Amino acid sequence: MADEEKPKIITPPNTLKSKVKTGGPGAVDEAALERAEAVIEGLTGSYLEWVQDDLKKLQAAFDQFVADNNAENLDKIFQISHDIKGQGGSFGYKLMTAVGNELCRFIEKTETVTPQTAEAIRLHVETLKIIIGRDLKGDGGKEGEALLVGLQQVSDKLLEG
């Protein structure tokens, strides 16, 4: 490429909008959406039971990880955290999703397991328990922000080396 040539930015057309119908047959049915939202709202109590079970499994996987220090247990922690991440926001616990995501990101980027790595994972697990224990819905407000920022700082420090 010659020095005087500048890169061209090509913006592809947004064809998705033309494919989504806003009225008539095959369109998004507002009443169906409202019914689905009501069903999800009704499952929030069940979510709290499910997540408590997930947190017990997560703690057991972490305890086994500390005892054995093997990748299989780290993978179990990742899988359970991934499930928690996927469900939290659907039931009004966006902070669970954020912390679950942070834990998954940390595990994915961890190359070697050290005592500090295990401690960081423990902090994530404990934070997930705190969120449910204190019923921190949504983003958890200022307390939620402080928890998440603290975890991100720990993760970033350890991942930097």
Keyphrases for this structure?
161 residues, mainly alpha, Four Helix Bundle (Hemerythrin (Met), subunit A), 0% strand
Q: What do these coordinates show?
A:
- This protein is mainly α.
- It has one domain (29-160): Four Helix Bundle (Hemerythrin (Met), subunit A), CATH 1.20.120.
- It contains seven helices and no strands.
- The chain has helices at 16-19, 30-42, 44-68, 71-88, 94-109, 115-133, 141-160.
Number of strands: 0
Class from helix and strand fractions? mainly alpha
Radius of gyration, CA atoms, in whole angstroms: 21 Å
Helical stretch count? 7
Distance between the termini: 38 Å
Let me know the average pLDDT.
88
**Percentage of residues in strands:** under 5%
**What's the CATH class label?**
Mainly Alpha
- The quaternary organization reads as single chain
Bulk shape: extended
What percentage of residues falls in helices of 4 or more residues?
over 70%
Number of domains: 1
CATH topology: Four Helix Bundle (Hemerythrin (Met), subunit A)
What's the main sheet like?
A: none
CATH architecture term? Up-down Bundle
